[in-house]
Each structure stands twice: as structure tokens, then as C-alpha cells.
Predict the 3D structure of the following.
Amino acid sequence: MLIWLIFLDPSIGKVDKASFSQQTLMELLIKGLDVNAEKICGSNSPKSILEWNGIILDDGTSPDDESCVTEIQWTYMQLEGSLHFEWLPSTVRRVLLYGNLLKGSIDTSCLNEGLKYCTVAQNRFSSELDLGSLPQAMEVFNASKNEFYGSIHLDNLPRSLEE
């Protein structure tokens, strides 16, 4: 009987993103890169994020004294492949990814709520893009020069984008 109770708990098997270190989240974010990931984190196993190119860290004043990623600047690095945006650390406020060869989709509903600035322009992203699911803090979102398809709905935009 006890076994049945364990399997009935819906929280079992779910991953709590907040329990992962910044290092782990960043490694999961870039896991889909096929070409030039070494320009970010080195050619062997990924270096410490303290040594990664194109990321800005805070001063390490988080409760666990871990430095937190606040900005990602991976522009014109000839990155190819996909990024797993669902693993973007919740501490990231700015993402600059323009001028690469990134592909796949961008699920705007999984972007962290504190993200204010995101430009993914000049890539090869291709999917429908739900602007209504952008984080409410978003002030700038540039997805031009990609291969998105479908209708663009400008209702339900974050208020900060409407201003």
C-alpha cells in the first residue's frame, strides 16, 4: 500500500530549477549548441562560469554567496544549434544573442519573470512566437531577422513593452 502512495504524489520526479547551481543551469542552457560552444566555456569539460566568455556576474551577494549570472552577451560568435531557454537562470536580466546561427524555438512562457531585455535577432529561430507570454518585466524584445511563422498577436503584451 505504501508503494501506491509514493507513486500518487505528483511532485515526485519533477525537477526544481531553483535547486540547481548557476553552473549547472548554464551548462543545461547551452547543451544544444552544436558548433562553437567552446567559444563560451572552453573546449574540454565546461570551465567554471567565472571563466566563461560573454557572461556578466553579480558581486556574489546571493544568500549562498554564489556568483549569479545577470547578463549573457553571446553576439556574433557563430554559435550553431539550439539553446534550452527553460534553464535560463532566474537571475538573468539581459540576454544578447544576435548575429549567430541559433535555431529551434523560443518558448516565451519559460523565460524568467525578471528578464528585462532580450534580443535574439539575426538567427535562425523558427517557430510560432507567443509575445503574450513574455515576462511582465520585459522592456525590450527583439526577434527580427529570424524564421518565425504564424500570426503576431500584440494583445497581452507586458505593460513595460507597451510604453
The first strand starts at residue 33 and ends at 35. The first helix runs from residue 2 to 8.
